[in-house]
Amino acid sequence: MKAGHSYQLPDKSIRHDYIQRNFNEIAHKYDLFNDLITFGMHRLWKKRLVALCRLEQFSEARALDLCCGSGDISLYLARLPHKNLELHSLDFSSEMLRILQARIAAWRQKHPGRSFHEPQIRQGDASDLSAFPDNSLQAITISFGLRNVQRRAECLREAWRTLAPGGRFLILDVGRVRPALIAWFHAVFFKTIVPWIGYLVHGSRHEMYAYLPASAEEYPDQQTLARELGQAGFTSVHIENRLFGSAAIHIATKTSPAHQ
């Protein structure tokens, strides 16, 4: 397997299991990898995502962190100064969830007595939210995970179904850089340098670090994803670009209890 542009995404029929298996293998290096390839900025973007949930407007709130990984978003949500917040964290990677559990235990040990909304952790598929009733959630977040969901349309529809009117679905993921010169530099960095950063962090070559930039090419651009959210039922969708559009936050609000 060669780095960068020569990598071929696996067939969609086996991609779910492929992604799950490989994320389990790189889980313990993934946070460092993200810090390096975004120069730490992904943490600022994630804090912005949590702020955009606007959970303070609800006296009682339930939030779901989809594709939670090692739990950056979940831990930011867990520390919100909200009196009545029920928090759920879902991912299909058992190793990522083990890291999240360890991070929760470490935070509690370091901050005894501090207010903390303990996440209810579950392993599952982001396109199957049957454990959550209709109109039962005030916020759903997903950070750099939607491009790994193979049934994206089902995921968006499930998010709309489970959100209560006024609730928000917030998506942070890769986007398209628009200024041509910056787009060229970004493409070179993302396709060529990013895999090698992953190999160095991991200590050896691992195809998942070539999968990540390749999957970004297949992921819809900002406007296409906004249209997909509209097709899922969201009538109010806003976009915040970050770093010239290399990352984007979609804020989709459920305005009606019935699909129009």
Describe this structure in words.
This protein has a seven-stranded mixed β-sheet with strand order 3-2-1-4-5-7-6, with helices on both faces. It is of the alpha/beta class and 260 residues long. The chain is built from eight helices and seven strands; from the N terminus they run ααβαβαββαβαααββ. It is globular.
CATH class: Alpha Beta
Count the strands?
A: 7
Structural class: alpha/beta
The percent range for strand residues is: 15-25%
Strand order of the largest sheet: 3-2-1-4-5-7-6
Overall shape: it is globular
Helix content: 40-55%
CATH architecture: 3-Layer(aba) Sandwich
Mean pLDDT: 94
- The fold-level CATH name is Rossmann fold
Task: Tally the helices.
Answer: 8
Topology:
Blueprint: H1 12-37, H2 41-51, E1 61-66, H3 72-78, E2 85-91, H4 94-110, E3 120-123, E4 137-143, H5 152-162, E5 163-174, H6 180-202, H7 208-218, H8 222-231, E6 236-242, E7 247-253
